[in-house]
Each structure stands twice: as structure tokens, then as C-alpha cells.
Amino acid sequence: MKRFFGFPNTYVLIFSVLLVTAIGTWILPAGEFERSKDKEGHTIVVAGSFHPVPQNPQHVQVLMAPVEGIKQTVGIISFIFFIGGAFAVLAKTGTIDVSIYKVVQRLKHRSELLIPIVMLVFSLGGAIIGMSEETIPFVLVFIPLALALGYDSIVGVSMCFVGAGLGFAGAMLNPFTVGIAQGICELKLFSGIGYRTVCYCVIVTVGISYVMWYARRVKRNPHLSPVYEIDQLRRHEQAQTEPATEFQTMHLLVLVTFLAALTLLIFGVVKYHWYIPEMAAIFLGTGILVGVFGKLTANEIAETYIAGVKDIAGAAIVVGLSRSILVVAQDGHILDTILYYLSSLIGSGSPLIAAEMQFLVQTLLNLLVPSGSGHAALTMPLMGPLSDLVGVTRQTSVLAFQFGEGFTTLVVPTSGVTMSVLSLAKIPWKDWFKFMWPLQVILALVGAALLVWPVLTKWP
């Protein structure tokens, strides 16, 4: 009995949330907001249009929702498959091993410097271009590097994923959060960049400090790591094969090809607004090219690619299952009901309390809609006008949205990107949560404090 009721597996956890959501469709009153298109083509809710609709309780649909969830996230699932295949081929060439060996030899006693530098770079990606899905492939680079430097796989994930997430939450120019939210609230695009830069600096400094504290702790005592046993298996597997220590021309060609692919990916996202299909295509081509330059045969490339896809197939199920929660909430007509009742909590009290309540409401809603652009389109048409009524500027409302959407996306099990990262990293959600919950508490307090000045000064 104790074994049955232990801490749930990631799949059990997400399916439990799915069942709770389905039960909600039987209990909560059904309702909807009307939708319209803004000038940028985003579908947004119409403030003041909430109305009751016939109840549509979900039953057998619960079992079909994951299928619909997979259909809706087929792009990111394909992306994950191609990443897994490409990295399997890259690993087969031995380039990762020899590159990590050289980095470790160079850094020696200065390994701690790598953490803030890498996190700062990725945080700028999150703050400026809204880097999110783009961090997924880097997980497979930084985990072995972190292990080689004496840290754990959580530190490896934090260097890229948490770094980008901190920048995403405190963004100055993120087009998927700040850009969309300000457009909906009829604010000048990227206005308020000065104070947002202050917020970014504070949030990133706090996040990097926490990760460095954790890294020092697990380096001194590896047994304190929640993933100690998992990492021991990783180290054992790495020890089974003697990595090459000589950096050959072949390794250089493979490394240059891989770095060129990552550069092309970032350039395409920034310049041409590439998204999942283009990024997936880059990794499909990269896997083939690194195999050729790594002197693998055509059969070896194909077999290794398929093996890599098999290793991360579970991530696809996680992504689809996560989206199925939103599918059930929408089909059961309770998503807008939840939004309506949560937003009604904000309209009382002082402006400062109203701003903090917006932060809280946005945080709660992020469990159901962990998507920057989707979250903005759903909530900001209501939060903007509501801010006017309670004495909070719309600029402050956008900031509360950023914090509420950004912080918890790093940990909520309904986020497809978060669960993809953890699946690729082979880190159970419960172990990730054990690492993340103190940082989430700290960020919540920091976010609440950063909202005080905008309220007191009526930040325009």
C-alpha cells in the first residue's frame, strides 16, 4: 500500500491533474468569453463578454485528450525526436567526450566561472528573443559537462534552461510576453524598458546565485543531490568506454558543423522568425552531416539516429499528456470560468494589493496555460481594463503577468518545454521540484517586491 501511494511518477502526476480538471468540468459552471483578432492576428478574449454556456462534462474524452494533445503539439514532438537522433549521432562520433575533456582540462580550478557565464548568455536569449524551446538541445551538451566538472545533471540543466527561463520572466524585449501583452494593453511596444532591465538584473542575479550555491553544495557532498543515484549510473556508463583525449581533424569538423547549426538556428529565429519545423529540419540535417564528418557509415548513422529517437520517445508522451489538460479544460468550457472567477478577485483592496493579486492570479493560471503568448492572449484583455479600475497602471499589469507566467513555467508539470527538458535529461519531476521549490519561493518574494515601486510611482 505504501509503495502504491508513494510520490507519483511524472506520468501519474500529469494524469492526476488531468483527472482533477475533468472532475472540474462536472462541478464548475460552464462559461465562455467571446474571442476576436487583434491587429497582429492574435486570438484574444473580449473583456466583459463572459456568459454561461451549456455544461459539457468530460468523461471518456479524458482518454482521448492525450491523443488530441499530441496532435496539437506534433511540432515540438518532432523537434524532440530530431534532437534525440542528432545528439545520438554526435555522441557516436566521440566529439562530445573529447570536447568535454579539453574544457575540463582548461578550466581546472575555475569551473565555477562557467555557471554564471553560461546562465547569463542564455538569460539574454530569454530576455531578448524569448528563447524557450531553443534551450532543449543544449541540455544534452551541458549535462555531461556539468558531470565532468564534479556537479550533477541538475546543474547542467540549470545552466541553459533555468538561465533562459530567468531571462524570459524578467524580459525587457521578449516579443512573446512583453510584446504581445503590451500590444493588447495598447502600450507603446517595449516601453518601460528601463525598469524592466532593473528587474531582469535582479532576477538573473538571484537565480544565478541560487544555482551557484547549489552547485558548490553538491560538489562538496554529491550525496545531497536529488539525482545522485541517476548520475552515478551516468558516470558508470561513461566509464565503460575510454573517451578519446586527442582532438582530431574529424572532431573539429563535427564540432564546427554542430556549432554552425546552432548559430543558424538562433539567426533564423531572430531574423526570419523560424519556429519548430525549421528548427527540427536543422537538427535532421545536422545529424546526417556530423555522421558523415565523423566517419560513420550510412547504416551507422541511420541505426544511431533511430536509437536516439527511441531513448527520448517518452518525452513525446509527456508533451502530449501535458497539453491534454488544456484540451479538457477548453472542451469542458471551464477554462474561461476559472479565468473569470480568478480575475474577479483582483477588483478589491488597495492598488498594491490588486497588483500582487494579479501576480498571484497569473501564477495560478500558468498551471493550465504555460505558454507565454497563449497566456498573454487569454489574460491581458481582462487584466488591462481591470487595472484601470483598481488604480494599477497597465504597464504594471504587464509586469505582473511576466512574473506570474515566467517563474512557475520552470517547474509546472503542464509545461511541454519543461517536461521535454526533464525527459531528455532523464530527471524525474519530483527531483527537479525538490531542487526548484526554494528558488520558486525566493522568486515569488522578489517578484512581489519588484511590483511595489511601479504601484507607488504609477509607472507609466
What does this structure look like?
There is one protein chain. The protein is an all-alpha fold and 460 residues long. Helix content is 71%, strand content 2%. It has 21 helices and 4 strands. The chain has helices spanning 10-27, 61-72, 74-92, 95-107, 114-128, 139-148, 153-169, 175-184, 193-220, 228-239, 249-272, 276-293, 298-311, 313-331, 335-344, 351-365, 372-390, 394-409, 416-425, 429-450, 452-457; strands at 31-32, 35-37, 43-45, 51-52. The strands form 2 sheets. Strands 1-4 form a two-stranded antiparallel ribbon. A two-stranded antiparallel ribbon has the order 2-3. Strand 2 and strand 3 (43-45) form a beta hairpin. Helix 4 packs across helix 6 and helix 5 runs parallel beside helix 7.
Q: How are the elements arranged and paired?
A:
Layout lengths: L9 H18 L3 E2 L2 E3 L5 E3 L5 E2 L8 H12 L1 H19 L2 H13 L6 H15 L10 H10 L4 H17 L5 H10 L8 H28 L7 H12 L9 H24 L3 H18 L4 H14 L1 H19 L3 H10 L6 H15 L6 H19 L3 H16 L6 H10 L3 H22 L1 H6 L3
Antiparallel strand pairs: 1-4, 2-3
The tally of beta strands, per DSSP, is 4
Content-based structural category: mainly alpha
Could you spell the SSE succession in H and E letters?
A: HEEEEHHHHHHHHHHHHHHHHHHHH
Strand order of the largest sheet: 1-4
CA radius of gyration: 23 Å
Shape: globular
Stretches with pLDDT under 50, minimum 5 residues: 1-5
Largest sheet: 2 strands, antiparallel
Number of helices: 21
Q: What portion of the residues fall into strands of 2 or more residues?
A: under 5%
| Helix content estimate | over 70%
**Which whole number gives the mean pLDDT?**
85
Task: For the record, give the distance between the C-alpha atoms at the N and C termini, rounded to a whole number.
Answer: 57 Å
